[in-house]
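sry for the spam today, last one i promise. struct tokens for design, 183 residues
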């Protein structure tokens, strides 16, 4: 059986201990599986969450949702949201929330704090609702310009445009019923 030396740990191992990669000259990654998995596990430490691919072999999906807080320049909370990947950066490009769009137009870039990450979608729904309730929406005398009490975002799902945002939100609300607690 052919053997190969790992570029990270330097140990000689059978080729079966290296992931296949058609772009590499010998058809396998330069580092062994153990070193590669160690690299991937430590790659995101201290960084904002990014969309990650979870194994599709029936393993438990990696929690990749987070809750973020957009603030005014003086530090006043403005908006609480949940998302995946780079969702927290997309508000500056455009949003259907007129109050939030006006704040971006007036101040330009606003500070965004990733409050909590590494959660499941249901966990993010619950945490978003709790944070919005704790800070308070403008409709209830608080500073947040959120249009709802939270927990009913589209969670990355695509729905037919004719369904509408309100109907799509109800569909998602049914999906994470355990995490939506009506006050």
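last one done:
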């Amino acid at each position: 059986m052919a053997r190969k030396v790992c570029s990270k740990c330097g140990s000689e191992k059978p080729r079966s201990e290296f992931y296949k990669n058609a772009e590499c000259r010998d058809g396998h990654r330069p580092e062994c599986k153990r070193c590669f998995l160690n690299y991937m596990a430590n790659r995101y430490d201290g960084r904002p969450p990014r969309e990650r691919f979870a194994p599709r072999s029936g393993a438990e999906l990696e929690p990749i949702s987070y809750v973020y807080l957009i603030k005014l320049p003086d530090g006043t909370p403005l908006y609480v949201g949940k998302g995946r990947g780079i969702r927290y950066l997309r508000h500056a490009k455009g949003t259907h929330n007129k109050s939030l769009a006006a704040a971006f137009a007036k101040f330009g870039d606003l500070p965004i704090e990733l409050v909590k990450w590494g959660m499941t979608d249901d966990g993010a729904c619950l945490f978003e609702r709790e944070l919005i309730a704790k800070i308070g929406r403008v409709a209830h005398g608080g500073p947040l310009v959120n249009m709802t009490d939270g927990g009913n975002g589209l969670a990355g799902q695509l729905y037919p445009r004719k369904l509408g945002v309100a109907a799509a939100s109800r569909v998602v609300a049914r999906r994470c019923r355990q995490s939506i607690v009506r006050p």
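The radius of gyration is 22 Å. ok im logging off now
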